[in-house]
Write the structure tokens for this entry.
Amino acid sequence: MAWMTYISHWFDEDDWYEGHQRAKMSQVKQVGLLAAGCQPWNKDVCAASGDRFAYCATLAIYIYQLDHRYNEFKLRAIMSEHKKTITAISWCPHNPDMFASASADNLVIIWNVAEQKAVAKLDSTKGVPASLSWCWNAGDAVAFVSHRGPLYIWTISGPDSGVAVHKEAHSFLSDICLFRWHPKKKGKVVFGHTDGSLSIFQPDSQVGVLRIWNVSRTTPIDNFKLKKTGFHGLHVLNSPPKKKSLSSHSPTKNHHTSSTSEAVPPPTLTPNQAFSLPPGHAVCCFMDGGVGLYDMGAKKWDFLRDLGHVETIFDCKFKPDNPDLLATASFDGTIKVWDINTLTAVYTSPGNEGVIYSLSWAPGDLNCIAGATSRNGGFIWDVPRGKMVTRFSEHGKNGIFCIAWSHKDSKRIATCSGDGFCIIRTIDGKVLHKYKHPAAVFGCDWSQNNKDMIATGCEDKNVRVYYLATSSDQPLKVFTGHTAKVFHVRWSPLREGILCSGSDDGTVRIWDYTQDACINVLSGHTAPVRGLMWNTEIPYLLISGSWDYTIRVWDTRDGTCLDTVYDHGADVYGLTCHPSRPFTMASCSRDSTVRLWSLTPLINPLQINILADRSWDEIIGNTDRAVEPGAPPLLCGKVSRDIKQEVDKLIGNPRGKKLRWFSECLSPPGGSKNLWDLVAVIKGQDDSLLPQNYCKGIMHMKHLVRFRMSKAQELTTVKMSKFGGGIGAPSKEERLKEAAKIHLRLGQIQRYCELMVELGEWDKALSVAPGVSMRYWKKLMQRRADQLIQEENDDVIPYCIATGDLEKLVTFFTSRGQLKEALLVAQAACEGNMQILQLSASNGSSNPDGNLEDYNELLHRVSKELAEWYFQDGRAVLAACCHLAVENIEVIFFLYSMNWRLAVSVGTVLGESAAQATQYALELLARKCMTVTTWDLAADLLMMTPNNELQLVKLCAFYPGSTAEINDLHEKCNLPGVEECMQLAETAQANGDVFETIKYYLLSTEPEKALPIGIQYIKEQISNSDWTLDSVCPFLDLLSYIRTERLVLHKCSEVRNELLILSGYAGALLAIRRQYASIVPALYEYTSQLLKRREVSVPLKIEQLSEELDAWRACTQLANKSTDELSYTPPSESQRMVYSTLVSRIKEEPLKGIIGPDYVTGSNLPSHSDVHISCLTGLRIQGPVFFLEDGKSAISLNDALMWAKVNPFSPLGTGIRLNPF
């Protein structure tokens, strides 16, 4: 295993311990990523191979891969090595893991997708490579050509490596736009020119023959009108990504890829149905940045991402009255408004405005956005009406770098420009003030406390404050100190008179207006600072984004940098958050992505104070108290004060409401509102109180069918208003189809048939008619006798429903990844909407009740499958919603990877039914609090659980204070003092009670005495042939809470090593029991290494460990791999024996909800610039990273969580506890 060589030195160093080193993870968590659209500048910008496809934004390549289990494409990686516009991409025909890309800075890169790294680079090519393609006949050779030619061939490896010029392909008459090699004829190549001609070179024939063909038919075989915006690029795959019932780990081999040039949709003709298309997929890229994978056989999108920005995003802002809507302004000339829950575009501005540098929402619910452009002045866009209502041209053709709508006085808008003016005007264009600066003005911000005060940032390195109530055009204050131009300025929303400024000198300065002084300089960025954002609840929290690709979080009290985020792949321009969701931040960048972040880890103690029901003083404070050096975080903003006011008004027990309101304010988007709505339904809240958008999320099972029924009604009757349809509103025909679909899934077969007839789709109507009555079917039969059955088509649905074969239908939906459809059908069945056809007349009575039992089981199964889909996608909250919707309360909480606080809040409100789950979440949360500062909080949390004595013992045993402090904690936890514990331990030892002996020794003045006693007992247990995991785990778990500084003493080294080995082995077995497959091999390997390198005597042999691991692999590989893979070998008889012994030893997991791997929110989001290799797997870590105590070794946060749940000690073998919670 890769990692062992990497960290083997730890295993040799017995007494390594650095008191202050603590494992750590990032405080700012990525929770959402809005990928860039496909660029419109170049031709060869999409490619595909096997089960992957890729497309190029301007600066990054997005790689999607088919998830075989759910049959859907997921973003797997973002490649952002290129610093200038990417010009072409080509997938290697011989190796599905490799593609080549070229960019405008004369660079060609060969990229390995599996390892996510560049394997070769060719710098400074002659001319910009405009098109490139792998040579089909040669192994490792890529050909590329600039607009004028000639054709170069770069051999990457081997004896002939280097660049050669094609002997014949040069001196073209017209520029080349792209070229292709012939896939069969070796060395034959065709060039397409900008004047519409083709040049073909064939070895051993005359040079440069121009041939123009046409196909034998003049009309297209078939045509698909896919999207209203024009095509930009098209890439056809000969064979589709294979569907597998079981997940497959290797992409299907030998897929050849051919390609056509830019496609323009042909005029619409009636499709020629007689011709059956070969199975194939096409990767399509559209002019608006949209990307899709179209299945030509089934005529449906396998993947479609509507529009996206294709260039740098300069600014992003949340809508003042709706924290779910985010507007973005881009270099591509558009403003787009996104729903951040679904990450889809809701509105896009009409036309191209040139480069848009800045945007500002109108205050309140005015639904307008002001935008500032590089050459075309400013404008106001009325968002729902979709048109520009005003334009501002006072700055002429000069760029406007910032536009700010006053939120205290909605009539005023400020702009600042390269012409040196900051202009204040009314929205109808009347100029109120023109403030002249000595050079370009880049930023301005209205004061949040005084409607007449505005600050500006200028190229002359100064910050100015103007007062609008006077007629003077001179600034009230000028702040000097920056050593390069000042860009943005921001007033603090919580501290009057405090403002910050970011500059090209790489620093952020904090100014106090009342003292006329700079009170702090924040240094750390290594390039100009652009984005700036104050937190609206924590007065000292400031966040900055820079051209150095990072986002930094600052504590402005002492200027420390609390965290640095490296996920963006280029300059970070805009940062924003919404006051009603103050710990969710959005950022935008030159990498053309928008990312969403959760800042809640920064205020952990505060969240736990809310959960532990501490007094308001420990949750909410005033600004003066909060900004004292070293004061714990307190909420000082409007949203927290509003919550307090509402809670104080409530009569009775307000705790449930308080937890809900705080949870909604602190949680990132992604289902927490949905979750609380479901909790309210389960607690019996009246349906009329449900919010309007409840029906858009995951609904409780009792609402699902009812809401969909009314949706079907609405689709059948409503005449869509002109705007209501939004982007590409459906036609009447489409609406009727949609209505028919819903009626069908609700079991209303006759309505479905009639609608189908209305649409002229007789066959569908006919095949379902027997579900109504044989008479009705005969009537229809006469009207239309013809029948048609197509395979692998949605037409299978009506048959299944008419015949009541729901099991088959649910399987069909599930195999296609249409889990929500499967859920709807199963629920409709449970409500008795599906009738099973009784053909014989004599058998009048059917037995519906017998089926309901089966349907219920079906419903729970589908719901669980849907939950797993959300969960492995890193969306644990929505997974929990799926379980809650079918009232599967026991399971829900274990779903929360890392979201223990939300789990505890919801569990507390649900009460008794979720007690076991809440207790587990509380215990993990208490482990999180076992850091230096929050011990009494951990005790408070544990006191909220029933039967908490043992948990409190572990807490006190691990507490590292002085004797007096330890006794205080013992007293708080109702445990005897340390002296008394010593006597109790001796008494228990005399009575032969091992567990009590260990317990009291751990609480005494000499906790190390517990080690030899406990370890001796565990070794005796393991020596018996019939020992089980449950007989040793409680003892190991208790021993692991010995204080770290005692465990690492030199005199304890032998027992410490034995404890580490036994914990590692028990951890491996627990990981098998809980199906944490990704860490089982690492735990076995870790235990073997310790056995090999340390002086110990334990009843374990290295050979035994490797036998068990091999047996586990052999016997469980069936579950993880598809059977038709060549590598599959069935387990041998001896392996089966070893594995069955293991299984009998491990027993079943009592807490069902813990089973299965952990997926932290954001764990499937690729990061851009910070690449870390896991020391457990040797692979690149995707998602959040956890650093071990040496500060260098890293593992994924998912693996760290699973490891710590089964083995408390660090993988480095140091004896330090792992605490990733």
Remarks:
- Residues 384 and 843 are 59 Å apart (CA to CA).
- Residues 701-723+736-871 form one domain.
- The longest helix spans residues 848-872.
- The two ends are 27 Å apart (CA to CA).
